[in-house]
Amino acid sequence: MRARKQRLLKSGIGVRWIVLGAIGLTVWAMAASGPVSTEHRILIGILATLAILAEFIPIDLPRRGFRITLSLPFLVGMVHIGSSHWALAASGVGALLAGMALIRTDQNRIAWRRILLHLALAAGAGSVATLALAGCRAVLPVEWLRSHFEEVVFASVFVLSHVGLVLSLGRQHEVGQREDSTPRSLIGVVGLLALYSLTSLGVLVLIDHGIWWALPLLFVPLLTIRQAVHLNNQLEETYTESVITLTLMLQRTHPYSHGHLGRVARLAERTALRLGLSTQRAAQIRHAALLHDIGKIAIDEEILDKPGKLTESEMDHVRLHPELGAQILRQNPEFAGLAEWIRHHHERPDGTGYPGRLRDVEIPLESKIIAVTDAFDAMVGGALPHERRTYREPMSQEEGLRELKRCAGTQFDPRVVEAFTATVLEAGA
Amino acid sequence: MTILSPYAASVVILLTLGTAALVFYVRIVLPRQVIERFQNSMAGLGTAVELRFPSHHGLTVRVVRLSAALGEAVGLSPRQLRDLETAAQLRDIGLCAVPYRLLNANAPSEWTEADHATYWRHPEVSAAMLEMIPSLCHVAGIVRAHHAPFEGAESGLSTRGEEIPIEARILCIITEYVWLERSMGHLLAVDKLRELSGTRFDPRLVQDFIEVLTSPHGVEPVSSAVTVAQPR
């Protein structure tokens, strides 16, 4: 499966050099080709057509900036009949044609550079794989071993180097924005990859037995894989988008929360990581932190924005918000875990918090993290004047940390405060 | 056809089985999951508005059910029905921008002109929010027009009649009916619909809706103990 990062084109670090190198390697591979029989030509034609067609049905994963195409099985088929250079050419032509066709629909100005990069990545990965193949031919002694493993080597090196190139380029551009949902879908991914490689083997079998007419049939598994990835992506989109929609709704009620939510979310995630929670858990905490005040949708905003001290009954009204937030989130089973954390984000270890008056050990760690982060950001506030809370002068970062330390043990969990302080100092330094 | 070697045969068989399993998963299991998750997350959004304005409690469920019934009766395509349902769920998310006290403390009869204007801006606000969400922006048009009067607004520039999407015309009737049903009961609500048919509502759809309500398979009216005043 070939993953392509589109976003990295924005800066295009070294893209020109990659393109030059890739073109060089491709030319070299073409030059190294020997004479070909007519039968071979026809077969190559069929396989190349299929590979190019496969390029036209990409899977777009917009939130992650990936575009995946499924042409590898046919490329492996070409390698099998001894034409790795043709495989490279088909892959390049496919990327070019498909890219040009997609520009029309995308209306994207950077599309040309994107095509160049796609070409470069495909050719780069293909060249590396070809080299690996040549090495494999030289090293593996036994004939049958070679004939069975050559394509596997080509395919795996191709995929690895392609994904590696994409990720290493992409990493430079979005440090800290990585979506981490891999563990959840790992089993599914392994299954899909297995079917994908089976399809590649299927191409080889059909070639070996001369059943060329059946080659297009292999589009059935490919299209199904595509659909599966697409739907899985949609599932994740639904999750992300309902988080976004809820946040939008909250911001409509309380415009001040704008920068606050984002900062709390980022800090909470980093603190969670520092406390040794898994990346997946930390990502969930980030979402929970984004949504921690969602219950305020159902709170009178005039009370929330009121300067000065609130009366007891007004306080009681405001204190409903963790419970209300949990009620909103519980509607969606996917948010069930988050709902519990949010319900308790105003509990205190000394047992005087609300709504449950829980004691230290009963409060979920996630709630404690959100509590500390939320309190800190409320004290220190944003850098921009209009983000500051109306009822209090913002503190400096040091003052805020000192205040957290003072309340550690009563209002906040000392362990969390410690990890949080380290996180803030590290980010500030 | 050539006889396949054991290796080749096993590849072909595995490939066929794997594809069949994946096709089953992609056609049957996944779509169901996608729809279920989508509906769950919509329900969460609806709940947020209903918690903010308790007088709206329980309206959305009924609006969704009735608009689906009417949509089916007038023969909308499955796709239109899905959009109609989504729009019915999300039509009021813009109420978040309506001040808390306006709906919770003051009766609509006491509202000033400005209060009415604030309240009736909610379809536009909902639509603007939906336009920011890629998978929901296609229902923004329906939501924007879900209170648009059939004969056109006073300004004269607005869409009118059949130009308004049919989903929005359906939603317009249903939301009004559900409000009225709760405040004055089923029979009076139907009378009111008839009265406004042609001016605020599409007369043909009102006719169809009354048939849906009175048909033996129709949705039985709920008797609600809660009585709330209708804005405007």
Summarize the structure.
Chain A contains 17 helices and 3 strands. Chain A has helices at 15-31, 38-55, 72-80, 84-106, 111-139, 143-171, 182-208, 219-253, 257-274, 279-290, 301-304, 312-318, 321-330, 336-343, 365-380, 397-407, 414-428; strands at 2-5, 59-61, 66-69.
Largest sheet of chain B: none
Helix amount of chain B = 55-70%
| CATH topology group of chain B | Hypothetical protein af1432
Number of domains of chain B: 1
Unreliable residue runs of chain A = 1-14, 170-185
SSE order of chain B, one letter for each helix or strand: HHHHHHHHHH
Cα-atom Rg of chain A, whole angstroms?
28 Å
Tally of discrete structural domains of chain A? 2
Please report the number of helical segments of chain A.
17
Describe this structure in words.
The complex is a heterodimer of chains A (429) and B (232). Helices cover 67% and strands 3% of the residues of chain A. By secondary structure, chain A is mostly helical. Chain A has two domains: 2-238; 254-428, Hypothetical protein af1432, CATH 1.10.3210. In chain A, a hairpin with a 4-residue loop joins strand 2 (59-61) and strand 3 (66-69). In chain A, helix 2 packs parallel to helix 4 (84-106), helix 9 crosses helix 17 (414-428) and helix 14 packs across helix 15 (365-380). Chain A is elongated and about 90 Å long. The relative contact order of chain A is 0.08. The model of chain A is unreliable at 1-14 and 170-185 (pLDDT under 50). Chain B is mostly helical and 232 residues long. Chain B has one domain (43-214): Hypothetical protein af1432 (Orthogonal Bundle), CATH 1.10.3210.10. In chain B, 62% of the residues lie in helices and 0% in strands. Chain B contains ten helices and no strands. Chain B has helices at residues 6-52, 59-73, 78-90, 100-104, 113-120, 122-130, 140-144, 166-184, 186-196, 203-214. Chain B is elongated. Residues 223-232 of chain B have low confidence and may be disordered.
